[in-house]
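Table S4 entry, SsrA-binding protein.
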Amino acid sequence: MSKKKPQQSSNTIARNKKARHEYFLEDKFEAGVSLQGWEIKSIRAGKVNISDSYVIIKNGEAYLLGAEIQPLNQASSHVYCEPDRSRKLLLKRRELDKLIGASEREGYSIVATTIYWKGPWAKLEIFLAQGKKSHDKRDTIKERDWQRQKARIMKHSVR
């Protein structure tokens, strides 16, 4: 008998599923996040929401806005916990320059899609994204439905 490997839990903490529906995701970047102690504890407990989050560039630095990290009930009373504060993103200069140049173009924005663990550090997956128009969203939905229907037809035709 072979030994069973212990199941590894997923490193993903939270996802922004709405981003794939709202944007054409183009370039992917991995950024570290500058967090306080209570935020790390809350993230470990899974009390994070990045569904409406986005990245802005201010004074040559990237900041995450709209991410909500709820403080734990056991949080220290001498520290003021602000769930909606802006958090600095840690990127290499070359990546930051690329984001600055691209975000200044018309119709492009920087969207956070996933927050996950990489070793002991919380990392944020961000994309350079272009907004979809409503007809693009409808086309995406039609294509997805057609793929589902095609798979269903192929499954039944094999029998």
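Strands lie at 12-15, 23-33, 48-49, 54-58, 61-65, 68-69, 87-90, 108-118, 121-131.
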